[in-house]
Amino acid sequence: MSKGTLGVQIGDKHTLKDWGLGWTSINLGFPEAKTYEQDIPGADGTLDFTEAMTAGDVKYKNRPISLEFEAPDKDFHEWSRMISEVANYLVGQKKKIILDNDPQFYYIGRIKMDIDKTDKDSSKIVLSGDVDPYKHELYSSLDDWIWDTFNFETGIIREYKDIQVDGSYELMIPGLRKRIVPTIECSAPMQVTYNNRTYSLLEGKNKVFDIWIGEGENFLTFIGTGTVSVDYRGGSL
Q1: Total structural domains in the chain?
Q2: In angstroms, rounded to a whole number, what is the distance separating the alpha carbons of residues 20 and 4?
Q3: Could you tell me the residue range of the domain that residue 215 belongs to?
Q4: What's the chain's Rg over C-alpha atoms?
Q5: Of 34-43, 155-164, 213-222, which one has max mean pLDDT?
Protein backbone atom coordinates (compact mmCIF):
# COMPACT_ATOMS: atom_id res chain seq x y z
CA MET A 1 0.00 0.00 0.00
CA SER A 2 1.19 3.53 -0.78
CA LYS A 3 1.00 6.72 1.22
CA GLY A 4 -2.51 8.01 1.48
CA THR A 5 -3.99 4.51 1.34
CA LEU A 6 -2.90 3.70 4.89
CA GLY A 7 -4.68 4.74 8.04
CA VAL A 8 -4.45 4.51 11.80
CA GLN A 9 -6.88 2.80 14.17
CA ILE A 10 -7.45 5.10 17.14
CA GLY A 11 -9.76 3.51 19.68
CA ASP A 12 -12.91 2.54 17.76
CA LYS A 13 -12.20 4.84 14.80
CA HIS A 14 -10.07 4.22 11.73
CA THR A 15 -8.80 7.47 10.24
CA LEU A 16 -9.20 6.36 6.61
CA LYS A 17 -12.37 4.29 6.84
CA ASP A 18 -14.28 6.60 9.20
CA TRP A 19 -12.94 10.06 8.36
CA GLY A 20 -11.37 9.64 4.91
CA LEU A 21 -7.97 10.68 6.29
CA GLY A 22 -5.12 8.96 4.43
CA TRP A 23 -1.92 8.72 6.46
CA THR A 24 1.04 10.39 4.69
CA SER A 25 3.79 10.52 7.32
CA ILE A 26 4.65 9.63 10.89
CA ASN A 27 7.19 10.90 13.39
CA LEU A 28 7.50 8.41 16.23
CA GLY A 29 10.55 9.11 18.36
CA PHE A 30 12.25 6.56 20.55
CA PRO A 31 11.73 7.05 24.29
CA GLU A 32 14.34 8.74 26.46
CA ALA A 33 15.79 6.63 29.27
CA LYS A 34 15.18 7.72 32.86
CA THR A 35 18.73 8.05 34.18
CA TYR A 36 20.07 8.52 37.69
CA GLU A 37 23.35 10.45 37.75
CA GLN A 38 25.39 12.16 40.44
CA ASP A 39 27.83 14.96 39.76
CA ILE A 40 31.07 14.60 41.75
CA PRO A 41 32.64 17.98 42.66
CA GLY A 42 36.31 18.19 41.73
CA ALA A 43 36.16 15.13 39.44
CA ASP A 44 35.55 14.61 35.76
CA GLY A 45 32.17 13.43 34.52
CA THR A 46 29.33 12.00 36.59
CA LEU A 47 28.51 8.71 38.26
CA ASP A 48 25.69 6.84 36.51
CA PHE A 49 23.55 4.79 38.94
CA THR A 50 20.80 3.98 36.40
CA GLU A 51 21.26 0.18 36.26
CA ALA A 52 21.82 -0.03 40.03
CA MET A 53 18.66 1.96 40.79
CA THR A 54 16.51 -0.10 38.40
CA ALA A 55 18.00 -3.58 39.00
CA GLY A 56 19.25 -3.53 35.42
CA ASP A 57 15.80 -2.85 33.96
CA VAL A 58 16.12 0.69 32.61
CA LYS A 59 12.88 2.68 32.62
CA TYR A 60 11.80 5.11 29.91
CA LYS A 61 9.81 8.30 29.50
CA ASN A 62 6.87 8.50 27.09
CA ARG A 63 7.68 8.85 23.39
CA PRO A 64 6.38 11.69 21.17
CA ILE A 65 4.19 10.89 18.19
CA SER A 66 3.03 13.00 15.25
CA LEU A 67 0.75 11.70 12.49
CA GLU A 68 0.09 13.63 9.28
CA PHE A 69 -2.96 12.91 7.10
CA GLU A 70 -4.22 14.00 3.73
CA ALA A 71 -7.84 15.07 4.03
CA PRO A 72 -10.41 14.99 1.20
CA ASP A 73 -11.25 18.36 -0.32
CA LYS A 74 -14.16 19.92 1.52
CA ASP A 75 -15.81 23.31 1.63
CA PHE A 76 -15.35 25.46 4.72
CA HIS A 77 -18.40 24.14 6.58
CA GLU A 78 -17.60 20.47 5.91
CA TRP A 79 -13.98 21.03 6.88
CA SER A 80 -14.99 22.69 10.14
CA ARG A 81 -17.43 19.89 10.92
CA MET A 82 -14.80 17.19 10.32
CA ILE A 83 -12.16 19.01 12.37
CA SER A 84 -14.62 19.34 15.23
CA GLU A 85 -15.62 15.67 15.04
CA VAL A 86 -12.02 14.45 15.14
CA ALA A 87 -11.03 16.86 17.92
CA ASN A 88 -14.03 15.94 20.07
CA TYR A 89 -13.24 12.26 19.70
CA LEU A 90 -9.59 12.66 20.73
CA VAL A 91 -9.42 15.48 23.25
CA GLY A 92 -8.24 14.31 26.66
CA GLN A 93 -8.84 10.64 25.88
CA LYS A 94 -6.30 7.85 26.29
CA LYS A 95 -6.67 5.61 23.24
CA LYS A 96 -5.22 2.43 21.77
CA ILE A 97 -3.38 3.31 18.53
CA ILE A 98 -2.66 0.73 15.79
CA LEU A 99 -0.69 1.67 12.69
CA ASP A 100 -1.77 -0.03 9.45
CA ASN A 101 1.85 -0.86 8.62
CA ASP A 102 2.49 -2.47 12.03
CA PRO A 103 -0.79 -4.26 12.86
CA GLN A 104 0.72 -6.77 15.31
CA PHE A 105 1.28 -4.06 17.93
CA TYR A 106 -0.56 -1.18 19.54
CA TYR A 107 0.47 1.99 21.35
CA ILE A 108 -1.36 3.61 24.26
CA GLY A 109 -1.49 7.37 24.68
CA ARG A 110 -3.22 10.70 24.30
CA ILE A 111 -3.16 12.54 21.00
CA LYS A 112 -4.86 15.72 19.88
CA MET A 113 -5.38 17.91 16.86
CA ASP A 114 -2.23 19.95 16.19
CA ILE A 115 -3.89 23.20 15.17
CA ASP A 116 -0.59 24.94 14.34
CA LYS A 117 0.23 22.35 11.64
CA THR A 118 -3.29 21.50 10.43
CA ASP A 119 -4.09 23.46 7.27
CA LYS A 120 -7.22 23.48 5.09
CA ASP A 121 -5.52 25.00 2.05
CA SER A 122 -3.15 22.03 1.78
CA SER A 123 -5.82 19.56 2.99
CA LYS A 124 -3.52 18.50 5.82
CA ILE A 125 -4.48 17.31 9.29
CA VAL A 126 -1.83 16.63 11.92
CA LEU A 127 -2.42 14.73 15.16
CA SER A 128 0.24 14.78 17.86
CA GLY A 129 0.84 13.82 21.47
CA ASP A 130 2.74 11.16 23.34
CA VAL A 131 2.38 7.44 23.94
CA ASP A 132 3.76 4.85 26.35
CA PRO A 133 7.42 3.99 25.72
CA TYR A 134 6.65 0.42 24.67
CA LYS A 135 4.39 -0.81 21.92
CA HIS A 136 2.38 -3.85 23.02
CA GLU A 137 1.54 -7.06 21.20
CA LEU A 138 -2.01 -6.86 19.89
CA TYR A 139 -2.89 -10.27 21.31
CA SER A 140 -1.99 -11.73 24.67
CA SER A 141 -1.18 -15.41 25.04
CA LEU A 142 -4.77 -16.05 26.18
CA ASP A 143 -6.54 -14.18 23.36
CA ASP A 144 -8.07 -15.82 20.30
CA TRP A 145 -5.92 -15.14 17.25
CA ILE A 146 -7.19 -13.47 14.09
CA TRP A 147 -5.05 -15.04 11.40
CA ASP A 148 -6.04 -12.53 8.68
CA THR A 149 -3.71 -9.92 10.24
CA PHE A 150 -0.97 -12.27 11.47
CA ASN A 151 2.54 -11.80 10.03
CA PHE A 152 4.01 -15.28 9.59
CA GLU A 153 7.52 -13.84 9.08
CA THR A 154 7.80 -11.69 12.21
CA GLY A 155 4.84 -12.64 14.40
CA ILE A 156 5.03 -14.95 17.44
CA ILE A 157 2.26 -17.50 17.99
CA ARG A 158 1.52 -17.57 21.72
CA GLU A 159 -0.79 -20.33 22.86
CA TYR A 160 -0.33 -20.65 26.61
CA LYS A 161 -3.94 -21.35 27.58
CA ASP A 162 -5.17 -24.52 29.32
CA ILE A 163 -1.87 -26.36 29.00
CA GLN A 164 -2.21 -29.91 30.31
CA VAL A 165 0.37 -30.78 32.99
CA ASP A 166 0.73 -34.44 33.91
CA GLY A 167 3.86 -34.72 36.01
CA SER A 168 5.90 -31.97 34.39
CA TYR A 169 5.71 -29.63 31.42
CA GLU A 170 8.34 -27.24 30.11
CA LEU A 171 7.07 -24.05 28.47
CA MET A 172 9.41 -21.82 26.48
CA ILE A 173 8.26 -18.21 26.12
CA PRO A 174 10.05 -16.03 23.54
CA GLY A 175 10.17 -12.71 25.37
CA LEU A 176 10.36 -9.21 23.94
CA ARG A 177 12.28 -6.19 25.27
CA LYS A 178 9.86 -5.18 28.05
CA ARG A 179 10.28 -7.24 31.23
CA ILE A 180 6.91 -8.52 32.45
CA VAL A 181 5.68 -10.58 35.40
CA PRO A 182 3.13 -12.97 33.85
CA THR A 183 -0.10 -14.08 35.50
CA ILE A 184 -0.16 -17.86 35.96
CA GLU A 185 -3.53 -19.54 36.49
CA CYS A 186 -3.65 -23.14 37.72
CA SER A 187 -6.57 -25.58 38.04
CA ALA A 188 -4.81 -27.15 41.07
CA PRO A 189 -1.79 -26.36 43.27
CA MET A 190 1.49 -26.83 41.39
CA GLN A 191 5.12 -25.84 41.38
CA VAL A 192 7.04 -23.91 38.75
CA THR A 193 10.79 -23.79 38.19
CA TYR A 194 12.39 -20.70 36.66
CA ASN A 195 16.12 -19.91 36.51
CA ASN A 196 16.89 -22.93 38.74
CA ARG A 197 14.53 -21.78 41.49
CA THR A 198 11.23 -23.46 42.36
CA TYR A 199 8.08 -21.61 43.44
CA SER A 200 4.74 -22.85 44.75
CA LEU A 201 1.56 -21.97 42.85
CA LEU A 202 -1.91 -21.97 44.34
CA GLU A 203 -5.10 -22.97 42.59
CA GLY A 204 -6.35 -19.90 40.71
CA LYS A 205 -4.35 -16.86 39.60
CA ASN A 206 -0.76 -16.35 40.74
CA LYS A 207 1.89 -13.66 40.26
CA VAL A 208 5.42 -14.65 41.24
CA PHE A 209 7.39 -11.42 41.33
CA ASP A 210 10.71 -13.21 40.94
CA ILE A 211 9.59 -14.52 37.54
CA TRP A 212 10.27 -11.89 34.89
CA ILE A 213 9.74 -12.68 31.23
CA GLY A 214 12.48 -10.75 29.46
CA GLU A 215 14.04 -10.59 26.02
CA GLY A 216 15.03 -13.97 24.58
CA GLU A 217 14.04 -17.50 25.59
CA ASN A 218 12.38 -17.93 28.99
CA PHE A 219 11.79 -21.45 30.34
CA LEU A 220 9.08 -22.30 32.88
CA THR A 221 8.80 -25.92 34.08
CA PHE A 222 5.50 -26.78 35.74
CA ILE A 223 5.31 -29.74 38.13
CA GLY A 224 1.97 -31.25 39.15
CA THR A 225 -1.31 -32.40 37.66
CA GLY A 226 -3.93 -30.17 36.05
CA THR A 227 -4.08 -27.31 33.60
CA VAL A 228 -2.11 -24.07 33.59
CA SER A 229 -2.53 -20.83 31.63
CA VAL A 230 0.15 -18.16 31.36
CA ASP A 231 -1.03 -14.65 30.52
CA TYR A 232 1.78 -12.77 28.76
CA ARG A 233 1.73 -9.85 26.34
CA GLY A 234 5.08 -8.74 24.96
CA GLY A 235 6.27 -5.15 24.66
CA SER A 236 8.86 -3.76 22.25
CA LEU A 237 10.54 -0.38 21.76
Answers
A1: 2
A2: 10
A3: 147-236
A4: 23
A5: 213-222
